[in-house]
Write a structure and sequence with these properties.
Helix content: 40-55%
Strand order of the largest sheet: 4-3-5-6-7
CATH architecture of the domain at 3-283: 3-Layer(aba) Sandwich
Number of helices: 22
CATH superfamily of the domain at 3-283: ANL, N-terminal domain
Radius of gyration: 25 Å
CATH class of the domain at 3-283: Alpha Beta
Number of strands: 28
């Protein structure tokens, strides 16, 4: 961080995003603040331009009657106008409430009602239509502002406003109320409520997490210094704006450091857009890294034999010495030369294709990442690290320091964070990022946060002798088999998801004699393989039921079973039986959260018959299920699912 920015962002007066915005517009007016790719062309807005856009929208909100304390819902893909809306609401004294853009109207309705939302800024016609449906059940929603006008010319409701029209009203309002918004900004304090973010709701209704400016700004400043972030970073902002990670990386750290964020043209062009931008700072949850690796694997399998040989040879070198070279350890001259050639022929081109050529710091979090996936990217020379966090912590609880990156840990306590392990193994923490409260839920707040500020994570973990935290699983999900062996479902599921053929897994075993699993195949990876084999199929259900596909998945499971024998804690939780589900688990069906976490209670209730079939010895089970298609239509799947036994591996006596 440059000296002037460090002094600026560290100033006690610059404790809100609107204050930081005005400071950046004053000291770095012509530096890029945000880019967006539109119609194939990158459009750049400087800090001074962002200030003007935000202040115009803030004035427009005030002209429409937006009051201090009001909530502003923000719904859509990552767009500059939506990021500006977040800060515009704060300028007026309100609270932004980002909502997952792929949520169905019923899910949005709960949040709008719970948060008492009066105003919404949305991206396009699709979101406007959802708002109109939501409004029928939430009459408190008074104004809907849309950014993209396409398809909305015939919408004549008086409460619908185009973004540019509201900004024009704002410019007029600002002229008539000269200096008023600046006064509101000056009056704002770090302790003020800055944003409200809703949890994913894995166990019930999402909770509204109230975070102050101090929670966000202090945490962003501490962690930016930890990783030596500067105003010269470039970040691609493509993850949901409703997720706390995007709030921290694309807003809090960007405003603290003054670096530029980049909005891709669409979710389908992220990979291409990343190659063009060449981000230096990157974040992705494990599924993103898993999907990228799946894409790489598919492309290699389609390549000629020379490319395949080069890839396999040099990836072997990367697995052997790549991590040591990245960490600055001593490596023999021969291996170093081999790695140099690998960088020339494989690693460099591969990182360029993935958009990772300039990445200086990368993080993953949200759930555990498979060690093999983690080492794959670090072997390429990419400085990917893990962090452990929660919405309630403004993300950061632990982080990997450079030179101390270990695939089986989530690092050491982040700057300013205290971490303790309770007697029952639960991870507790307190920090400057600890949330204010759960909105309208004092009971849940008291259950989660103690009077001394310690937060119960609900995760089971322990510190190793190296001072690094290791997370086993969700505390409530860690169970025991009937023989007393530990059962950690998420750990097993992540190991299986390393294989590109497997997209999602749900394991069972608590208070059972053995562990079993539901598998979702990755349609792209397995479909590509099937086409090369000349295997005909009509869709997911047909492909998932083919016996040769079962053979492939069985081999993956049995490899994991062998790996588990080396872990004295988990060797007893090898997977004995499995089936491949007839459909993909889907957030629209309530089976996954919007951040793709498994809703175990829903799975157990909905697929109880299939679970019992895994344990009662049947080799086949009949299923009839209703599914929701992308266009909202309902359909029915009828199938007979095979159930397979797998080979388990005896644990050596010494290990046992």
């Amino acid at each position: 961080m440059s000296a002037n920015l460090e002094a600026a962002s560290g100033s006690p007066q610059l404790d809100t995003f609107p204050k930081l915005l005005l400071e950046h517009a004053r000291t770095r007016a012509d530096r890029p603040a945000i880019r967006e790719k539109d119609f194939g062309i990158w459009q750049t807005s400087t800090w001074s331009q962002v200030r003007d856009e935000v202040m115009a929208l803030a004035g427009g909100l005030a002209a429409l009657g937006f009051q201090p304390g009001d909530k502003l819902a923000i719904v859509g893909d990552n767009r500059p106008q939506l990021y500006w809306a977040m800060v515009a609401a704060q300028v007026v004294g309100g609270i932004p409430v980002p909502v997952y853009q792929d949520s169905v109207a019923d899910e949005m309705q709960y949040i709008f009602d719970h948060a008492s939302i009066r105003f919404a800024v949305v991206e396009n016609q699709e979101q406007v239509d959802k708002m109109l449906e939501v409004q029928q059940a939430c009459p408190a929603l008074e104004h809907i502002i849309y950014e993209e006008t396409r398809g909305l010319s015939d919408y004549d409701q008086p409460f619908l406003h185009s973004y540019v029209d509201v900004q024009q009203q704002g410019r007029d309002w600002n002229r008539d109320h000269a200096g008023e918004l600046e006064q509101r900004i000056t009056a704002g304090q770090g302790s003020d409520l800055g944003i409200m973010l809703y949890t994913s709701g894995t166990t019930g209704r999402p909770k509204g997490v109230e975070l102050s400016f101090d929670n966000l700004v202090i945490t962003a400043r501490n962690t930016a210094e930890f990783d030596h972030l500067t105003a010269d970073e470039d970040m691609v902002s493509y993850l949901p704006m409703a997720w706390v990670g995007d709030c921290i990386f694309s807003v809090a750290q960007a405003y603290v450091c003054g670096f530029c964020i980049n909005c891709p043209e669409s979710s389908d062009t992220v990979l291409t857009d990343m190659r063009e931008i060449g981000p230096t700072y990157f974040f992705a949850p494990p599924p993103v890294f898993e999907n990228l690796l799946t894409t790489v694997t598919i492309r290699i399998e389609d390549a000629g034999w020379i490319k395949q040989w080069l890839y396999r040879h040099f990836m072997g070198v990367a697995r052997r010495v790549g991590v040591q070279i990245l960490d600055g350890e001593q490596v023999g001259l021969g291996d170093r030369l081999q790695y140099f050639l690998g960088e020339l022929f494989i690693y460099g081109p591969l990182k360029n294709v993935l958009g990772f050529s300039k990445v200086r710091v990368a993080y993953t979090a949200g759930e555990a990442i498979g060690p093999e996936i983690f080492d794959f990217y670090r072997g390429l020379g990419m400085n990917i690290k893990q962090l452990y966090g929660q919405t309630e912590a403004a993300v950061f609880i632990t982080m990997h320091p450079d030179g101390q990156v270990k695939p089986d840990t989530v690092g050491v306590p982040a700057p300013g964070v205290e971490v303790e392990i309770a007697d029952n193994g639960e991870v507790l923490y307190r920090s400057p990022g600890v949330f204010i409260r759960y909105h309208k839920n004092d009971e849940a707040t008291a259950e989660t946060k103690t009077a001394e500020g310690w937060v119960h994570t609900g995760d089971a973990g322990y510190f190793g002798d190296d001072g690094h935290l290791r997370i086993i699983d969700r505390a409530k999900d860690v169970g025991k088999l009937n023989d007393g062996s530990m059962f950690a479902p998420k750990y097993l599921e992540n190991k299986l998801k390393f294989f590109p053929q497997i997209k999602e897994v749900v394991t069972f075993g608590h208070e059972r004699d053995s562990v079993t699993a539901f598998i979702n195949i990755d349609l792209e990876a397995v479909g590509n393989w099937a086409e090369r084999q000349g295997l005909a199929y009509s869709g997911y259900t047909d492909l998932a039921g083919q016996q040769v596909v079962y053979d492939v998945i069985q081999k993956c499971i049995e490899k994991v079973n062998v790996d588990l024998t080396s872990d004295p804690h988990l060797s007893g939780s090898q997977i004995h039986r499995f089936l491949i589900l007839h459909k993909e688990l889907d957030a629209d069906d309530g089976e996954l959260t919007r951040t793709r976490k498994v809703r175990r209670r829903i799975i157990a209730e909905r697929y109880g018959d299939l679970i019992e079939a895994l344990y009662d010895g049947r080799d086949q089970v009949h299923v009839e299920a209703e599914v929701t298609f992308e266009d909202g239509r309902k359909g029915k799947i009828v199938a007979d699912l095979a159930i397979r036994d797998t080979k388990t591996t005896q644990v050596p006596a010494a290990a046992a």
